[in-house]
Write a structure and sequence with these properties.
single chain; mainly alpha; Growth Hormone, Chain: A; 3 domains; 21 helices
Length: about 525
């Protein structure tokens, strides 16, 4: 992986005609990537409206949303091959057409399998379009190809759009209907395709690398495994976990796909995800950190909505306005990581400790401050802290994958593993664990509080049973949340202590090779595949 970087002239994009000012060319692709990132197939912020107007359950919509993340993750292993096979023009036009179709299907179907499959495909093509845009402007963002700098931009766009998309979706549903968000995004995708047809030329590389040697069977098996894992996490509580045939079946299918994939990886020349990618030290470390960190932060998915809606009485618009605070945390977190980690090369250990320290502050705030009379403005600080800490962890450990020393042909496979553990497992496993913890804790507290209320009610003016039950459940929810926040705060402090006493002198030096170097790597692998096929024939 030599030939990293060197002097170069002013940045330009040959795909865009010269009558477009050079300074505007990168912003055109940023405009494209924003449209693509907003187009998720399904919009989780509209889940309540979708449940109310369709036969879908909350779990069905979550499953579809996570399927989109699985589709994005599984694409990482082939995105460089797509980059060198198709021009930017073809990639953006194909992805735009697929995302328009996905928006149409998601706005009109009530079939859960179709919805999940559509979102999976939409996620795959959304990742392709995102990579087309971001790889095109990479040298504009960091001429020396420093990925720590590049990932600050990536997560500002990706995580920022998640928050802004929720805000746009809720206000669209408030002023019109939730389906209108799909039509708006379809219109923007049509606009993107029109601009691509007018402003992006079909520039091809010196050699179009065919899609040979890709383990599509392995890709399908890994996708099924990831979807089964997500299904168990999303529907586990609904089906009462392994008491239900559905969860048992998903477990058997998922384990079988995983085992078959590992068996195939032991003898295939180029499995979709190889053992070097799975056993790399940086990949394993990132996976462990993701599991711990995002489990600590899983209260975002389990508690915050319930607390703000059921206890504080916020409506949908007031709830979604809280996303602005998270967005501010993400933006400031990306800026902080850019100046400290990317420019001044602070150590991985230092950045991880900072993120866990802020996670402890977030959990501590809710543990000490959670109450029935919290004002909306008081939630700014903890939500800001959550966005700030989460984006630091994401940038730092994705950068560590680049610095893992993997051969570049294996590197995209590590990105797939990182995408699954960071995005899918981080979003699904933590809430499943915390949700089950809440169920048991709330049942225990409701029994204790209910006994006290019953004794009080027997000796006082009779309170209607329904009102009594609602009061007991509300008190039990607040006490249970405080108890779980306390346990998570202890876990965060212990994690911080472990990080503080560990030895971590490594600083970021994640320099991306030149595109022509990457192209040569894939050309060499393609020639080997062609020779192998010729010898078989």
């Amino acid at each position: 992986m030599g030939d990293w970087h060197g002097p170069q002239g002013p940045f330009d994009i040959p795909d865009v005609p010269n009558y477009v000012p050079r300074r505007l060319k990168p912003w055109l692709f940023i405009f494209f990537v924003l449209i693509v990132q907003f187009s998720g197939g399904i919009y989780l912020a509209a889940a309540t409206d979708m449940v109310g107007s369709t036969a879908l359950m909350q779990e069905d919509i979550l499953m579809a949303g996570y399927a989109s993340l699985v589709g994005m993750s599984i694409n990482f292993a082939v995105m460089f091959r797509l980059k060198f096979r198709f021009s930017n023009r073809i990639g953006l036009l194909v992805c735009g057409a697929v995302l328009i179709a996905a928006n149409f299907i998601c706005a009109n179907t009530t079939s859960v399998p179709l919805l999940v499959a559509t979102c999976f495909v939409a996620g795959w093509f959304r990742m392709w379009a995102t990579f087309v845009c971001n790889s095109t402007i990479q040298l504009w963002l960091t001429p020396v190809r420093d990925m720590a700098i590049f990932f600050c931009y990536v997560y500002l766009v990706v995580d920022g759009v998640i928050q802004l998309s929720g805000i746009a979706t809720i206000y669209t549903a408030f002023f019109a209907q939730w389906e209108y968000m799909h039509w708006i995004m379809s219109g923007l995708l049509v606009l993107m395709m029109a601009l691509v047809l007018i402003l992006v030329k079909p520039v091809k590389g010196p050699m179009q690398i065919p899609l040979l040697g890709i383990d599509w069977i392995g890709a399908a098996l890994w996708s099924v495994f990831m979807l089964c894992f997500t299904f168990i996490c999303v529907y586990g509580n609904f089906y009462d976990w392994w008491e239900a045939e559905e969860i048992i079946g998903a477990t058997i299918l998922g384990v079988a796909c995983l085992a078959f994939n590992l068996w195939r990886a032991s003898f295939l020349h180029h499995p979709y995800i190889s053992f070097p990618a799975l056993t790399n030290r940086n990949v394993i470390r990132a996976t462990l950190i993701y599991l711990v960190f995002f489990t600590l932060m899983a209260t975002e998915h389990v508690f915050e909505h319930s607390y703000a809606a059921a206890i504080l009485g916020f409506d949908e618009t007031n709830l979604i306005d809280l996303n602005w605070y998270v967005f501010a945390g993400i933006a400031i977190g990306c800026g902080f990581t850019y100046f400290t980690f990317a420019l001044h090369k602070w150590r991985y250990k230092t950045m991880t400790a900072i993120a866990f320290a802020f996670a402890a502050v977030y959990l501590g705030w809710f543990y000490f401050m959670i109450d029935y009379g919290v004002e909306k403005e008081m939630l700014f600080f903890p939500l800001f802290i959550r966005g700030f800490a989460s984006v630091i962890i994401s940038i730092v450990f994705l950068t560590s994958i680049v610095q893992s020393g993997l051969h570049f042909f294996v590197f995209p496979q590590a990105l797939t593993v990182n995408g699954f553990t960071g995005a899918v497992m981080g979003a699904a496993l933590g809430p499943a664990l915390i949700g089950e913890f809440l169920r048991h804790t709330m049942a225990k507290n409701a029994a204790v509080i209910g006994a006290r209320f019953t004794d009080f009610n027997a000796g006082a003016t009779h309170i209607p049973l329904g009102q009594l039950y609602g009061t007991v459940q509300q008190h039990a929810l607040v006490i249970s949340m405080k108890e779980i926040y306390g346990w998570l705060l202890i876990a965060a402090i212990l994690s911080l202590v472990i990080i503080a006493v560990s030895y971590g002198p490594i600083r970021p030096f994640a320099i991306f090779p030149k595109w022509r170097t990457i192209r040569k790597i894939f050309q060499k692998e393609t020639r080997l595949q062609e020779q192998l096929q010729d010898s078989i024939q």
